[in-house]
Amino acid sequence: MEKPVLYTVIAGIAVGVAALAFFAFGRPATDPVALADCLSAKGWTMYGTEWCSHCNAQKEAFGEAFAKVDFVDCDEKPFECQENGVDAYPSWVNRDGSRHLVGEQSLDVLASEAGCVS
User: Fold this and answer.
1) How many domains does the chain have?
2) CA 88, 69, 99: angle at the middle one, nearest 5?
3) Kind and range of the H or E element at 113?
4) How much of the chain is helix, strand and coil, in % rounded to 5?
5) What is the distance between the alpha carbons of residues 79 and 82, in angstroms, rounded to a whole number?
6) Which domain does 8 fall in, by range?
7) Considering the entire predicted model, what is its pTM?
8) Is the same domain home to 11 and 57?
9) What digits encode the pLDDT tens for the residues 14-71?
């Protein structure tokens, strides 16, 4: 086999392996700090309670970055939750109330739905 053909075959295999790795492992995970900043800047709020297990799991997904997320405790502010159409926890609602995401969401889904994907 001639060297140029061999190099082409090797390059093709390398590209194939790289593509396979990308699709098998996906893109890098969403950065919780950047997402929390973006959600706050775009006016998204998480509504929930302290006793809600899915709310707590959602908080854990953000880790320390959850401190940057706008959060309303519906036990403490039931009227605000009612006014925003919250009837299940956790619920994510955008600033104008036109978008609701109900239930625990992955960070990737939140980023996509809120337009926080780069």
Assistant:
1) 2
2) 50
3) helix 107-114
4) 55, 10, 35
5) 5
6) 1-29
7) 0.75
8) no
9) 555 454 444 444 555 789 999 999 999 999 999 999 999 999 999 999 999 999 999 9
